[in-house]
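ok so for the tutorial part 2 we go from a plain amino acid sequence to predicted structure tokens. step 1 is just haveing the sequence, like this:
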Amino acid sequence: MEAYAGWWILAAVLVGLELGSGTFYLLVYGVAAAAAGVAAWFGASFLVQLLSAGAVALLGKLLLNRWKRDTGHPEASVQDLDIGQTVQLESWQDGRGQVRYRGALWDAEAQSAAVDSARPLVIRAVRGNVLVVGN
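step 2 — the prediction. this is what the tokens look like for a chain of 135 residues:
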């Protein structure tokens, strides 16, 4: 079997495994194996094939890490939509209580000791399933 065929079979197996994992890392390595296959197709030595696979894998991993870092916390953007929204007070005692927001009861805590529960409360932050509220 020709070397390029082996690289392309490896690439196909890695891309196929990626379909089940969803991490994109196997896709990067599959593309790297395909690049080594292209190098083999053009008659490059085995060392050049390995170097091309390594370079493509390293570049792909760096790009993937950067992409994941830039888009890694979609839940933060969803919580940001809640900040600034008004809630209705249901019960309150010593800076903690329950508020009604989006048709459900939420646990809430005061942003600071100066929060006046007699005035309208606004969401200032979200910590897990607790709304931090203030005036």
